[in-house]
Write a structure and sequence with these properties.
Elements: E1 3-9, H1 15-26, E2 31-37, H2 47-54, E3 75-80, H3 83-88, E4 94-100, H4 116-137, H5 145-158
Parallel strand pairs: 1-2, 1-3, 3-4
């Protein structure tokens, strides 16, 4: 059975979508990643979320907002990214661990006259700062090419 991780936000339009895209790019093979919303927004994923992922080489163009109830099966890790989702989904259990990474909604910038792209970049980068060490701690982080080569070289020297 593979490890399954879901990222949950209220609207499933920005933070959880960026977390899903980043995690898919960072995890080792055999780890399933999803995202969902406690009250998904029918307008779909915000274009700035897709754009800032593309800046990292991650194509999230096929992502769409979905309800938690639409996801099948159980998840090993449930990570909520906003306080509302953490409160809306108290019974959405995890097989191993439920985690809350409360983060500001980058979509708020759209109503404040702030350049949204930079706010979305900051949000993406904060998610990645939390995600990388957490994935490494759980043994789910994909090895970089250099790490894999060093490991193989070290193994061959001892053989």
């Amino acid at each position: 059975m593979s490890t399954r991780i879901v990222f949950v936000c209220t609207g499933n339009r920005a933070r959880s979508q960026m977390a899903e895209g980043l995690a898919r790019a960072l995890v080792r093979d055999g780890v399933e990643i999803a995202s969902a919303g406690s009250r998904p927004d029918v307008r779909g994923v915000l274009p700035w979320a897709i754009e800032v992922l593309l800046e990292k080489g991650i194509d999230a163009g096929g992502h769409y907002s979905k309800k938690i109830e639409a996801l099948e099966g159980e998840f090993d890790y449930v990570i909520t990214l906003c306080d509302d989702a953490a409160q809306d989904c108290p019974n959405f259990a995890a097989r191993r661990e439920r985690i809350h990474w409360g983060m500001p909604d980058p979509a708020v910038a759209l109503n404040q006259g702030v350049a949204p792209l930079q706010v979305f970049r900051d949000s993406r980068d904060e998610i990645e700062r939390r995600l990388r060490p957490w994935l490494a701690e759980k043994g789910l982080l994909r090895e970089s090419r250099g790490e894999a080569e060093r490991r193989r070289a070290g193994t061959s020297r001892h053989a």
